[in-house]
Each structure stands twice: as structure tokens, then as C-alpha cells.
Amino acid sequence: MKKLALVFVSALISLSTFAQKEKTVTVGGAPMYPSKNIVENAVNSKDHTTLVAAVKAAGLVETLQSAGPFTVFAPTNAAFGKLPAGTVETLVKPENKATLTAILTYHVVAGKLNASDIAAKIKAGNGTATLTTVQGGTLKAMMKGKSLVLTDEKGGMSTVTIADVNQSNGVIHVIDTVVLPK
User: Fold this and answer.
1) Cβ(39)–Cβ(178) under 8 Å?
2) Quick one: CA dihedral 9, 11, 15, 18, positive or negative?
3) Contact 164, 71 (CB under 8 A)
4) What are the pLDDT digits (tens) for 116-138?
């Protein structure tokens, strides 16, 4: 029994040491662990409560917990706050699930694209890169100074404020404005 307790304590210490060695990025006041999936991390960010609520309302939790990999451009609460008054409240209603799903999946690109991958695509595209979203639309990526900027299909622009938040099933790039499909 004593040996089993020692083995258990040793395993806990090893897990704790592993977690401390992970290279985390702080988003919304919480560390984002590369060993956790997109949803497991996002629920801890105080800056992404609106996004998490929207993902739940759209029924996308299971998808974003799957193996992926995914590149997610994650709008902050402030980004959602830029939408016209009442928009978020309307979108999360069950009757608007299809529209909400289309908007959220427009923020996702299949595969894992770190900022350096996107920068390489921008360079190869002579200043712009076209990213195809899971929703089926496109986002244009470009550099403005040292900032990565996305332009949506309606001409709206969003800036990546925190890049390369690695997850077990992809990567998150925090953005300051919700991007919208046609």
C-alpha cells in the first residue's frame, strides 16, 4: 500500500512538472496549454466567454474537441461587442443556429497554420494569402507593418492580437474583430 501511494505521488509530481514545462501563452488571464484542445483552453479565457457561448449554441464543441488540426481565428468579447447591438443575442437563438454555425466556421481553417506559415503564404502570394475556411469562404491575409491582418468577404478587417496559441488539435490566433462571410 505504501509503495502504491509513493508511485501515485511520484506520478502527480511528474504531471505537475510536465505542465510547468509546457510553453503556455496567457489569453484572457489564463494559461493556454498546448496539451489541451481548443475547447479545453478557450473555456478558461475571460476574453472569450462570448465565443465559447456561441460555439456551444452552434453545437460545435465536439468538432473543436476532435483531432483536427484546426487553425482558429478567435474573436474576443470586445470583437463581438463591435457588432450591431443585439446581434449576438439574436444569433445564439436556436432558430438562427445555421447562420451562427456559418459565421463560426468562417473563423476556422483546416490544418495547423502558425503565424510563420501564414507569413510564408503571404510572401509566396506577393503580399496576400487566400485562406479557405471550413465554412467554404475565403479570408485574405496580409501584413500591415508587423501585424497580421485578415480581410473578410465583406471587406471587414481584423488584426491578430495574439498569435500562435498552440493547442493539442491545432492553433488559435486571437483577433480583434469578428470576420463575416458573404
Assistant:
1) no
2) positive
3) no
4) 999 999 999 999 999 999 999 99
